[in-house]
Specification:
The protein has 10 helices and 13 strands. By secondary structure, the protein is an alpha/beta fold. It has 2 domains: about 150 residues, Rossmann fold, CATH 3.40.50; about 170 residues, Dihydrodipicolinate Reductase, domain 2. The strands form 2 sheets. A 7-stranded parallel beta sheet has the order 3-2-1-4-5-6-13, with helices on both faces. Strands 8-9-10-7-11-12 form a 6-stranded mixed beta sheet. The longest helix has 17 residues. About 45% of the residues are buried. The model has no long low-confidence stretch (mean pLDDT about 95). Keywords: Kinase, NADP, Oxidoreductase, Transferase. It comes from Nocardioides agri. InterPro entries: DAP_DH_C (IPR045760), DapB_N (IPR000846), NAD(P)-bd_dom_sf (IPR036291). This is Diacylglycerol kinase.
Length: about 375
């Protein structure tokens, strides 16, 4: 660490549903300068970043498929937004490569790196730590869920507690407007026969994907959980045909799911992550629903006092899935200065100082 350097030179790695918002966020941030953009699609090679981000103007930064050319720019940080859900270990190799090149990284995945204890093979953790120690580069993986909605937000709320019996972090959302066919089809199994469950419902996968949430909250509270974590899944068929941007969901195919990953202490649930995911807001009305709109993140802290916080977001045009991509991007964009100035290696939300929207207040 040394004196803060601004603006920090940043490369955006991928321009999909999250990456194009990251470009917008970096362009708007007074302490960040976009110097490069990586794309996997040859059709995007050579296109201006402003066009890819749909800014309506050019930024003078051309996208490229040449990863080495971007590393040769010696950026201060890479904002990595590439899809990782279907290539977890390949993505980890990419991230380690950035650290070995001496480049700090904020990334939206793989989400297990939010808190990799009991999930990441020890040899991979060691490689990340050694790369960071050798080059001084830091890696921070975050977003909204896993991320802010179930690390910083609940842990800050617990600062108001006198006694904590259980911390429950929830996502309650309608995914019908969420465009991510791989996630919706292959991982969740939405729109597929009930006897053909998605990848997420195989034993142990939920703990790999969201166990980081449960264990990081536990670490923040200073408790040690029973291992392994407990998984519970309740899948329900759609009652009617429903339109979805990732593929329509026919009646009788999987249309909704409720799952929990439960961290217990001496057999008693103490930290729980719960997702209630629908493809039609009217599905399974007996399950919890958001207070308004199509989705929310909810934190429930049982104890003294009882506390519940509903975090609702939506874009300028009303869609919560678009704003979900924005808040995911902004969490890792706004964290760049803190991550660059951090110690080398993997840094978690517990390691970082308070990250704010400094410099982003509108002047018009």
């Amino acid at each position: 660490m040394g004196e803060p350097r601004t603006p920090y030179k940043v490369v955006v790695w991928s321009t999909g549903t999250v990456g194009r918002h990251a470009i917008k966020g970096i362009d708007a941030h007074p302490d960040l300068e976009l110097v490069g953009v990586w794309v996997s699609n040859p059709a995007k090679d050579g296109k201006d970043a402003g066009e890819l981000a749909e800014l309506g103007r050019e930024l003078g930064v051309l996208a490229t498929t040449d990863s080495q050319a971007l590393l040769d720019l010696r950026p201060d940080a890479i904002v990595h937004t590439a899809m990782t859900d279907d290539r977890v270990f390949e993505a980890i190799e990419d991230l380690i490569g950035f650290l070995e090149a001496g480049v700090n990284v904020t990334s939206s995945g793989p989400v297990l790196l939010q808190w990799p204890e009991h999930i990441l093979p020890p040899e991979l953790q060691e490689r990340i730590d050694k790369a960071g120690e050798r080059t001084g580069a830091s890696l921070h993986v975050n977003g909204i869920d896993p991320g802010f909605a179930n690390d910083v937000l609940p842990l800050v709320l617990t600062s108001l507690s006198q006694r904590i019996d259980e911390v429950r972090v929830m996502e309650i959302c309608d995914y019908s407007t969420y465009y991510q066919p791989v996630v919706m089809g292959d991982l969740f199994g939405f729109g597929r026969p009930m006897d053909e469950p998605g990848f997420l419902w195989s034993p142990g996968i939920l703990s790999m994907a969201w166990g980081s949430v449960v264990r990081q909250i536990a670490a923040g509270l200073g408790i040690v959980l029973d291992e392994p974590l407990t998984e519970e899944v309740d899948r329900r068929p759609a009652e009617r045909d429903t339109a979805s941007v990732s593929g329509d969901v026919k009646a009788g195919t999987m249309g909704a799911v409720r799952f929990q990953v439960i961290g217990k202490v001496a057999g008693v649930p103490r930290v729980v992550v719960e997702h209630i995911t629908r493809t039609d807001p009217a599905q399974v009305p007996e399950w919890p629903s958001p207070p308004e709109g199509d989705g929310c993140y909810r934190v429930v802290i049982k104890g003294e006092p009882f506390m519940q916080c509903d975090f609702v977001h939506h874009g300028e045009h009303g869609d919560h899935n678009v704003s979900g991509m924005i808040v995911t991007a902004q969490r890792i964009v706004n964290a760049v200065p803190a991550v660059v100035e951090s110690r080398g290696g993997l840094v978690t939300a517990l390691d970082l100082p308070l990250v704010t929207g400094k410099g982003l207040v509108s002047t018009t």
